Every structure is written in structure tokens, then in C-alpha cells.
Amino acid sequence: MERAEIMKRVIGILTESQEIRRSHEAGGEAAPLSEPGVVTLLLSEMMPHFSVPADATPLQVGRIVGETLAPAMHTIVGAFAAAFNSLAAVHDSGRTDVTSMDVLRELALRVEAGAHDHGLDHDRPDDNGPDDGRDQGLDEGGPDVVR
To answer: Are 7 and 138 in contact (CB under 8 A)?
Structure first.
């Protein structure tokens, strides 16, 4: 899944959680626990699908799971951190004329326009050297596909 698409889904999760919080504060009912909510659906869309051979050893299963999920989890956590930083910057500036929903909306528009500058991978240790293209953040023009 492309990093920009993951960022959009993260914004969707944060927006949905804000709507749930507001509904709860207004006396609304929470969604039934038996049905997957939007957050669960969005998270499952972001996770890569993989299969494990029936005869795989526990070590092989661990390696397959780790190699498949680690890049996606890194990108998802980076997207949440970028969204948090956007929200925190407005909060820390003391602005009271901008809501968190305004910030998320603006962030979504920037991501959609391709003008996102989050550097999701700047702190990532890279065992393959700096020029393999996998450590390029969104703002560096690197690949936008989670492997």
C-alpha cells in the first residue's frame, strides 16, 4: 500500500475517533463491540496479507511474519507520529481558532495534493546503506510503496 494512502487511512482513523468521542460526550451510544468499526477496518486494510507454508518451522513463521509486517508497521507508526506532530504543533502554538478536525482536514488535503512533508523514515536504521531507496521519507521523493 502506498505511504500516502496509509497516511489518509491514519487521518481517517483519527477523524473517526474524534467523531466517536464527540458522540459519546453528547450522550450517544458507542458502536456495538460485535461489529468491526471503521478503525478496525482501516487498520486491517493497511496491514499486508501473507501466507505461511504448512510445513514452516516456528523460526520460519517468525521470519515471514517479521519481514512482512515490520515495514508496514513502521510506516503506520510513522504516519500516526506525523499526524500527532501536526496536531501538537497547532496545540503548542496556542492557537484556539483551529480545531483538531481542522488540522486533520488540512493534513488530508496536503496528503491528497502530494504536498506532505512528514519524513516518516528519518529515524529508521538502515542495514542496506543509504542509497537503496527504502529509507526515503515522503518528503524526500523516495518510493511511496510499502514493501
So the answer is: yes
CA distance linking residue 137 with residue 116, whole number of Å: 10
Output DSSP code: residue 28: P
22-55 as b/e, with b when 16 or more CB fall inside 10 Å?
Answer: eeeeeeeeeeeeeeebbbeebeeebeeeeeeeee
Neighbours of 63 (CB within 10 A): 13
Separation of alpha carbons 107 and 101, rounded Å = 10
- Whole-model pTM above 0.70? no
Q: 69-98 pLDDT, tens per residue?
A: 999 999 999 999 999 999 999 999 999 999
